[in-house]
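Example 327.
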Amino acid sequence: MRIFISFLIFFLLFASPDTTFGKEVSEEEAYQKRMDLYKRVELTTQIPWYYIAAVDHYERSIRYARKDIPKPSGVTGIYIKPVQWAGWLNPNQTDPSPLSVELFNGFGVDGNGDGKANLNDDEDIIYTFANHILKYGVDEDHFRIALWDYYKRDKAVGLIMEKAKLYRHFGKLDLNDKSFPIPLRFNYSYRDTWGDRRGWGGRRIHEGTDIFAGYGVPVRSTCYGIVEMKGWNKFGGWRVGIRDINNTYHYFAHLNGYAKDLHVGQIVEPGTLIGSVGSTGYGPPGTSGKFPPHLHYGMYKDNGYGEWSFDPYPLLRQWERSDRRKK
Ligand SMILES: [Zn+2]
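Predicted structure in complex with zinc ion:
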């Protein structure tokens, strides 16, 4: 009942008549609409906006990567199956009545106060998820447990917590900016070597682009993200792996050394110094000089089930151009 009243108050004070996107909404407007929605949820539920944002973004990315669930069409990316929404035993799977949904132990709630628990309404969907979290608690530990109970998958919980950390740190939703890994004022060269049989630091085929530059040339983060891996590998030498907000993994190999204090779990942004160009690898820790110095840069995509590499070359060209314009 208390929750219902807070929804009612929320409705009277904050609800806007139009909360869905038109087709011509710009990316900037889309981010603004999402942020407005998250902040409203925070206000009425005390769930920090960055937790809601992280779940929403995770769900959206999974929906784009999968074929068995519909693509997101509204402000929110969260998808709840009709049977979950209405209740397993509910004979009417499109039942919008909050009372009978509750009776059949359905998930759906009326978030916008219009008297209906509508599976296609952004506010109803997001409040339904918020309602799930509220059964546990709004602090980090309880939020984690709520996520685990919902997804039953450690990886999902981990990815969502990482996203929440990034949103909280940067205070904004648009974390898509990228930069070229080498500052443009240095000499470097690269070409498309995707799939080449030879190459240093790749796997069976060459999974990435080699950027040739002198020893000690700075290597920077290409994205907003979190350092997920730092350490030696027999082939890659001294390496760094960074996970960005879209679950893409950015891999940097053969480094000469690391930026001071760089550590796993560190939050980085495009341009953050992570190390320098070297020729480490192909031997025990510290082995260097078996090939010309270069940065091996690779990208890996995650769809919620597995990870695969894709050619970073076209993106590197794009980031290089945009860095040039920024100067
Ligand atoms: Zn390489």
